Automatic annotation (TrEMBL):
One of its GO terms (cellular component) is endoplasmic reticulum. This is Rap1 GTPase-GDP dissociation stimulator 1. One of its GO terms (molecular function) is guanyl-nucleotide exchange factor activity. The keyword Endoplasmic reticulum applies. GO terms for biological process: anatomical structure morphogenesis. InterPro entries: ARM-like (IPR011989), ARM-type_fold (IPR016024), Armadillo (IPR000225), RAP1GDS1 (IPR040144). Signal peptide: none annotated. Coiled coil: none annotated. Keywords: Cytoplasm, Endoplasmic reticulum, Mitochondrion. It is found in: Cytoplasm, Cytosol; Endoplasmic reticulum; Mitochondrion.
Length: 636
């Protein structure tokens, strides 16, 4: 239709709309057949069509509604048709669906027209609300059996479209629909659909989007347990990717709750997803199929983040299935297997079992193949998270070290992706806990220490800065604390002279690791800067590290040259100012342990001549007296 012809048709229609006839129906058919809605934009059609929608002739009403549906595909006409009388006429007609003759042709066209008028149109939605039309629209959901079989699929589709376009109007409309019982209506429809997913595919494809809209607009919308189970069953039975995606997205949202995680775990959702992924994994060649696969994988992992659901699934075949995925050549299945095992590894007994069963060795083999700069960051992060958990129980540490964890991890220092670095450092820190031999070795690793000093100063990622400092402090502590523990008095208030007297002149242990550590520029500065870290646990770790350095180098048995160098470095890093800042900022929240370590540290520093005036300059003795926990001891 060219513009001139359209203008002509509309003029004729305006003439005949006063007393419609067969000619009117013909004109309406021709107008409805146009492919370009913009041809209507310059015309004022609402009044003319209002008359036609009120015609006694059902055919005229049907064709008029069909025309309005086409015309209102244009934004300009949507606004022009946003009239109370037109919307009221449509609602009145929908109030009587199904019609006496059972035909769905007119309701279909009215749903289309009203749906298009509502599209991105709050004014139209508000009119529907004012006219209490939301109750009329929701009443359409009660139509379970449609006699007009030929038109049933089309009605199901346009009913869903109309309600979607209306409910997308936001929170107010969604909440009002909830008050009118929309959830119960949708639940009934989904129960019906789930009874035979293949037969009711259209019904489900046009019902589930309404649940998604409600989920987005109603805060903390929790579905009934039955509905979540039905979604899980539909997912298992469906072969339609769009339907699978809707179920997965809805279940994702619901599974944020631990109660739902357990419900879905017990209902076998994770096994369902595993079976579907095994069945379709070779078909995930398009980006849409791959996105769907990722969504399914993420849901398995999400369910496993719940404590009860994880414990339940540990006793099911899913555990073995996830171990099997460690051999997968598909990066998403492999990563999911690793993430799942990392979640199973949240208790000591599970971690010990994984080491005994060689699952840990499998994880290390995967890491060895994926520990380079160009490898998948998400997989690296997952592997390090899982290994970090496995290395926490004491009985596992030696086995994991023997299996080559450290050698596999150290090449990853080349990777500068903050999430990977954060996990890498945390994994090393957990591995070194109580492992004196390993800590001594790592203190000598120049590449590692230089990198830690660099990250402790320059990372934009607070977690990496903190982990770098903590790993250095842990290396010092676990390499030397057992050697020098005798020199740390149990009570923090012993005078400095006593400490100095307690230290034997010759101490038979190897200082070479610590010498090499301190030979790296910035190591002392790092430990001193850590005194004013945000977290008490880090402040405490810094104090312990400084106590160890003081015992090893500042005692009478230390080498005079090294003692001088350490004193100069400590003064250069302004250790007095940092201790003063620590006491001023954190004294109110200090625990007994931190206060004792602080006193030990200060007393040990005082055994060095150069440091005495430096500490006095910063008024450390007076500041110590201000710590609340110490004044409490005194007044007992």
């Amino acid at each position: 239709v060219i513009p001139a012809e359209m203008d002509d048709l509309i003029e004729q229609l305006k003439t005949t709309s006063v007393s419609p006839s067969d000619a009117t129906t013909t004109l309406l058919c021709e107008i409805a057949a146009t492919k370009d809605p913009k041809l209507f934009d310059k015309h004022e059609l609402a009044e003319c069509f209002l008359r036609l929608t009120q015609s006694k002739d059902t055919n005229v009403r049907k064709e008029a509604a069909k025309c309005i549906a086409e015309i209102t595909k244009s934004e300009v006409q949507r606004k022009k048709f946003t009239k109370r009388e037109i919307i009221a006429a449509f609602l009145e007609c929908l109030r009587h669906v199904p019609t006496e003759d059972g035909s769905m042709e007119l309701p279909i066209q009215i749903c289309r027209a009203l749906g298009n008028i509502c599209y991105l149109n709050d004014e139209a939605r508000d009119l529907i609300l004012e006219l209490k039309g939301d109750a009329v629209l929701l009443q359409l959901l009660d139509i379970a059996t449609i006699e007009d079989a030929a038109n049933a699929p089309q009605f199901i589709k346009v009913r869903g479209g109309l309600l979607s376009n209306y409910l997308l109007g936001g929170e107010g409309l969604a909440k009002r629909a909830m008050e009118l019982g929309i959830m119960q209506k949708l639940q009934r429809m989904i129960d019906n659909g789930a009874s035979n997913v293949e037969q009711h595919e259209d019904l489900l494809l046009n019902t589930l989007p309404l649940l998604s809209i409600l989920t987005e607009n109603v805060a903390d919308l929790n579905f009934e347990a039955q509905l979540n189970i039905q979604l899980s069953r539909i997912l298992a039975a469906s072969t339609n990717p769009d339907l699978a995606e809707m179920c997965l997205e809805l279940l994702h949202y619901q599974a944020e709750s631990d109660e739902v995680k357990l419900l879905l775990a017990k209902d076998g959702l994770c096994e369902t997803i595993y079976n579907l992924l095994e069945k379709y994994k070779t078909l995930a060649s398009t980006s849409e199929a791959r996105a769907l696969m990722k969504l399914a994988c993420e849901l398995i992992v999400l369910v496993l983040t719940g404590d009860e659901s994880m414990h339940y699934l540990y006793t099911t075949p899913l555990l073995k299935n996830m171990v099997d995925w460690l051999d997968s050549t598909d990066i998403d299945l492999l990563t999911t297997g690793v993430l799942a095992l990392g979640n199973f590894a949240r208790t000591d007994s599970h971690c010990i079992y994984f080491v005994e069963q060689q699952t840990m060795n499998k994880l290390l083999q995967v890491l060895a193949k994926n520990n380079g700069v160009r490898d998948d960051v998400r997989l690296q992060h997952a592997l390090l998270s899982a290994l970090r958990n496995l290395v926490i129980p004491k009985p596992n540490k030696n086995a994991v070290i023997q299996a080559g964890l450290v050698q596999t991890i150290l090449p990853m220092l080349e990777i500068h992706q903050p999430p990977v670095v954060f996990k890498l450092l945390g994994t090393l820190r957990m591995t070194v806990d109580g492992q004196e031999k390993l800590a001594l070795e790592l203190l000598k690793n120049k590449t590692l220490i230089e990198q830690l000093v660099h990250w402790s100063k320059s990372s934009d990622y607070a977690g990496v800065t903190g982990e770098s400092l903590r790993l250095m402090a842990w290396l010092i502590k676990h390499a030397y604390l057992n050697r020098i523990a005798y020199a740390l008095p149990r009570k923090g208030d012993a005078p400095a002279e006593q400490i100095a007297d307690k230290m034997p002149l010759s101490q038979d242990y190897d200082r070479s690791s610590l010498n090499e550590f301190l030979a790296n520029e910035g190591t002392v500065e790092a430990m001193v800067s850590m005194l004013t870290a945000q977290h008490l646990v880090m402040q405490n770790e810094a104090l312990i590290a400084l106590c160890i350095l003081s015992v090893v180098y500042l005692s009478k048995s230390g080498e005079p040259e090294q003692a001088q160098r350490l004193q100069d470095q400590l003064i250069e890093c302004n250790v007095g100012a940092k201790l003063a800042e620590l006491i001023t900022k954190s004294s109110d929240s200090m625990t007994k342990e931190i206060v004792e370590n602080l006193q030990n540290c200060i007393n040990l520093l005082k055994t060095a001549e150069k440091l005495v005036p430096h500490l006095e300059q910063h008024n450390i003795n007076e500041l110590l007296k201000s710590i609340p926990i110490l004044t409490e001891y005194c007044t007992l």
